[in-house]
Amino acid sequence: MTDTTTSAVRTVDAICDQFVEDYCALDPIAATYYGVAGHDDRLPDYSPAGYDARVDLVRRAVAAVEAATPVDDREAAARDSFLERHRLELEMEDAGISRCMVSVIDSAIHGMRQVFDLMPTEGEVALEAIDARLAAIPAAVQGYRVTLADEAARGRVSAAAQYAKVVEQVRGWTGETGESGDFFAGLVDRCAPTGELADRMREHARAATRAFADFGLFLSDELEPQGRDKEAVGREHYALTSRYFLGATVDLEETYAWGWQELKRLADDMAATADRIKPGATVAEAVAHLDADPARVVHGREAFRDWMQELADRTLADMADVHFDIPEPVRRIECMLAPTNDGGIYYTGPSEDFVRPGRMWWSVPDGIEDFYPWREVTTVFHEGVPGHHLQVAQTAYRSESLNRWQRLMCWVSGHGEGWALYAERLMDDLGYLADPADRLGMLDGQSFRAARVIVDIGMHLELEIPADNPFGFHPGETWTPELGREFLGEHSQIEPDVLDFEINRYLGWPGQAPSYKVGERIWLQARDDVRERQGDDFDLKAFHRAALDLGSLGLDPLRAALARL
Fold first, then answer.
1. Which of 270, 300, 302 is nearest to 287 (CA)?
2. Distance between CA atoms of residues 257 and 275, nearest Å
3. What are phi and psi of 441, to 5 degrees?
């Protein structure tokens, strides 16, 4: 990494900016996600040497930032954020967690597949980049296999059940199972190349498919037999990953107890809202009443995508210059159907130059063709505006106040997902969920996230279910994945296939699921602290602007930065 500590006045910013350049060179997939140009034709080195190089870069950057002196509060916040993120990253590496983790939501194999969703497909330059990246897949997959085998030899493995589930996903991507077909062959078909380039791309797509299929066999034949029998990771592992996803240290037992209280509050609110929809109805009866209403269903995936796009565009127009300062480039979002059927909804940020806009993605499981907008109005607010799109895209735009690392690379789940849940509640406060059906959809989502706090902490720490829990759910028993699945089903209106994916996601990504609701809790506490300090001078729009202008950061550094307002 280039030494900038003696040549720049804003030393912290200079180190962070250089780190972006150096890291993108070592991780071209990350560069594509961040929208940094010039790396789309390569893949990372996933061999042990490649991982070592990236970790060494982080260690040197942390040491340089530790030695730097901020020149003002803004740079102090940047320093705190950088050190919080990357010290935790190094702790995860030193604990033997990072390299061996294979889950249904996160691994190098997922990154290699998903990165193609973000690449442009028009023009010869774009197609040549896709072709080069396709050609690089067999070597990248082989390097990853070496790393996982090396980690397994040290006793560092994921749960056997996670390997098995990822094998199912890989078989879906290669067209062996499911409705999506061969992902790489389909990618080439969508690109519609011609001539010699078409022949090369198809050849490289076939090789990529073979590499993925072979990787699936490697997981099932070699790693799954070595995987952990128990999916629970235990307290020490969980405490570290919880800190990583939140950017804050929380009392896990207190948070577990709070989860029960919050879920009961939401259950009571849902019951009252159901009564508004159909007097005397239970929540289940109100849901059945709504789902039976032909005016509240959208048929077909493309029609549902169009509905999401219209609502996202309308909300953006309503929010801009009224409730939020929204820069012009941020006033564009695309709603997309993902080219896979894994399940899940997610957001990807814009490219650095905003040529690629922020996007809301919906990965629809096989067989689902009917959609119920009342359930998803709040999802559009969560993923779009004032949720992730406003937060992420506005951060990317603030080059005058945030260094490049803050704008492009920093993402803390508790900060981001907590803001998105905060945004859902804010939209209720602003009257955008006046229809009790839409409000029930929001409460259902909030209830689901509160239940996840209980289930995630309970399953991984193998806690006892309180004997006096307000729902009479298996009192005194110890949490298991089966009980977690049952509990989530009782506290959400989610399709069974999606719920199955969700429980597998929590088991493979310990600490991430609670970051939504716990993050919202900390955002609300931080706002209330500022309101109390400022008294009559408190202005909500100004608070939002000041908070979002900090960029993404851990929730402990967020509270420290907001304390300086």
1. 270
2. 28
3. -60, -40
What 8-state DSSP symbol labels residue 334?
E
User: For residues 427, 429, 431 and 434, what is the CA-based torsion angle, rounded to 10 degrees?
Assistant: 100
* CA gap 7, 14 in Å, rounded: 9
Which contiguous run of DSSP H or E holds residue 359?
strand 358-362
CB atoms within 10 A of CB 439: 22
DSSP 443: H
Q: Which residues contact 212 (CB under 8 A, 6 or more apart)?
A: 109, 113, 137, 141, 170, 173, 174, 184
Count CA atoms closer than 13 A to 107's CA, side-chain side: 28
CA gap 520, 530 in Å, rounded: 15
Q: Is 257 buried (19+), middle (13-18) or exposed (0-12) by CB count in 10 A? A: middle
The residues with which 360 forms a beta bridge, in sequence order, are 335, 347
What gap in Å lies between CA 148 and CA 170, rounded to an integer? 16
> 403 and 17 in contact (C-beta within 8 Å)?
yes
- Write out the DSSP string of 213-271: HHHHHHIIIIIGGGSBS-----HHHHHHHHHHHHSS---HHHHHHHHHHHHHHHHHHHH
Residue appearing with tokens 């998105």: 420
What sign for the dihedral angle of Cα 7, 11, 15, 17? negative
Tokens representing 525?
């506490």
Q: Which residues lie closer than 8 Å to 82 by C-beta, 6 or more apart?
A: 12, 16, 61, 62, 65, 405, 410
Cβ neighbors of 418 (< 8 A, separation 6 or more) are 515, 516, 517, 518, 519, 520, 521, 522, 523, 555
Per-residue pLDDT of the chain (565 residues; tens, 9 = 90+): 444 444 448 999 999 999 999 999 999 999 999 999 999 999 999 999 999 999 999 999 999 999 999 999 889 989 999 999 999 999 999 999 999 999 999 999 999 999 999 999 999 999 999 999 999 999 999 999 999 999 999 999 999 999 999 999 999 999 999 888 999 999 999 999 999 999 999 999 999 999 999 999 999 999 999 999 999 999 999 999 999 999 999 999 999 999 999 999 999 999 999 999 999 999 999 999 999 999 999 999 999 999 999 999 999 999 999 999 899 999 999 999 988 777 678 899 999 999 999 999 988 877 889 999 999 999 999 999 999 999 999 999 999 999 999 999 999 999 999 999 999 999 999 999 999 999 999 999 999 999 999 999 999 999 999 999 999 999 999 999 999 999 999 999 888 888 888 899 999 999 999 999 999 999 999 999 999 999 999 999 999 999 999 999 999 989 888 887 7
Return the structure tokens found at 196: 């010699």
Q: What is the rounded CA–CA span in Å between residue 409 and residue 396?
A: 10
Number of residues that this document lists for the chain: 565
User: Cβ distance 69 to 11 under 8 Å?
Assistant: yes
Angle at 100 between CA 96 and CA 103, to 5 degrees: 130
Helix (H, G, I), strand (E, B) or coil at 176: coil
